[in-house]
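User: Could you check the structure of this?
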Amino acid sequence: MTGTPRTTSRVALVTGGSGGIGKAVVERLAAEGYGLAVHYAGNKAKAEALVEEITASGGQAIAVSGDVADEQEMEAAFESVETAFGGIDVVINTAGIMVLAPIADMNLDDLDRMHRTNIRGTFVVAQQAARRVRSGGAIINVSTSVTRTQLPTYAAYVASKAAVQSIALILARELRGKDITVNTVAPGPVATPLFLEGKDEATVAHFAKATPLERLGEPRDVAESVAFLAGPARWVNGQVLYTNGGLTWRPTTQARARAALPKEKPVPSVVLITGAATGIGNLTARALAAAVHTVYAGMRDIRGRNVVHAGTLLDLGRREGRTSVSANATCSPTPRRTRPSRRAGRAGGPQ
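Assistant: Sure, the predicted structure tokens are below.
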């Protein structure tokens, strides 16, 4: 712990507070007169420099360290804040890491490392916060708007951040009656090292154009939302606040994005569909036939209306310049069960 705090009316602990969104949150709350605990995991110099800036401006701040996923280290960090300020009113968890890769190629060690920080770390911090935050306080997690998309390479990261949102939503209900709000801020693309790392200029420009404001977010944009939830927003609880400049990923948007990708020729295959005479079976057979598949449509018998359905499938194949559909009587007819005559039963009396 570093710094020499003085008495203050409201105290906030910001995990990951030495850089990126966390740093912007610290600066925003310092401007409102909060006593700040700037948490860091590895960059002590940055955290202490930020503390010095705040105290030099007449603010109150200390630096605390610890691995967010280590319950003993975070317990010590929370105790340091309570010792310095007399209590904690707001906990803001911005600590997190992002590793992107397709599911098929994801290094499982990277998966475990990311989930340890993003999921276990969030849980450990939330657990300490639930035990220590004073009445009238707030707990705020930071997630991502990407949880509402299906962007390739983001599966592992999105899974971890979806868990962050769920932890907050449930904790809000578990703290019933304690006058403590629990919410999540879900930023869109924000110009931080975490977002920019590994992305070329074209990719960054694409994300910037994805919002109606046609720019990337800045850390201070997210800090404004956090400050709102930390202070005046006492009737906002158990919510996810999407701070993303209007970013939306509707199905039509995603369809256009897929349409821009290089087209791949479909790989023909042979498909057997039973019950293809009517309903879902028949619709499925037609769709597969149109997609250059050879379909063997199994019908109980090719008589009556089934002749029409079989002919429709065959005609579809011919119109596409190929005979890609066969309709076969591959299933034996189910024998009809005969019911005893009611009249006979009445005539013979009770059976």
